[in-house]
Design goal:
Elements (H helix, E strand, L loop, with lengths): L2 H18 L11 H10 L4 H13 L9 H7 L12 H14 L16 E3 L5 E5 L4 H6 L6 H13 L8 E4 L13 H18 L3 E5 L1 H8 L5 H4 L3 E4 L2 E6 L2 H6 L4 H15 L8
Parallel strand pairs: 2-3, 2-4, 4-6
Antiparallel strand pairs: 1-3, 5-6
Length: 277
Amino acid sequence: MNETLWNEILEETRVLARAAANPRTGMLSISPETAALLEKIVPAATVGFKDAVAAVQDTSSEPIPSSEAQVGSQHAGETALSSDTSPHAASLAALAEEVSVCTKCALHEGRTQTVFAEGNPNADLVFVGEAPGFHEDQQGIPFVGKSGALLTDIIEKGMKISRKDVYICNVIKCRPPENRDPLPDEKQACESYLIRQLELVKPKVICALGGHAAKTLLRTDESTGRLRGRWHFYQGIPLRVTYHPSYLLRSPGEKRKTWDDILEVMKVLNGEVTPVP
């Protein structure tokens, strides 16, 4: 191949890689299938592609985690933030940038990186969890550990929709030390970011995973057990409370109740039920 033409292709690849990468972490994931196809079709170009990915990494202060290939496999090569170019997607990206340098509470001192969100900025369904854990802090993506695998099963095996088609975020954007419960001042410091996320996504349904998410969104002190099983509303949006996946891992006998909640969410998404305030 002509060297000039090859250099032009390589530069275009670098540009596309930068555009597709997570703007906060510089991470770019591709599925193993895509990687294999690239090597099969253009084996000589794989070195150039790796150079392009490295160029993306060089623009970020955060390294690409060694587990990134696993994340790419699990989520079909998705980056943490959507590449959607709609105005509110751009607003979400700008908000993610703001969150990435947030120092409103002491949690910023111990974080590896912030964990903003993952998924479709046009999603009909938003899952709101509590806070990042160890794996989320390392990868910058919500729900990627064991509880994340369970949530993925609920979405993909249970609801029969792709994880990439929902929007997933947490009340808290930084990992609390040793995965302890978020403190009231930490939730208060982060709440404005969550409010803005929900304003921009405008989902048809919100599913609050666990007590911290439910209590923050509903301004209540009631327990998850007392809140689940019925419809609530957040800014006019139907909201269903259910158990956090990490709780289900400790109490598998409660999975039936969570599935009942998810079935009600599906009825609203399918237009079978319209909750009334």
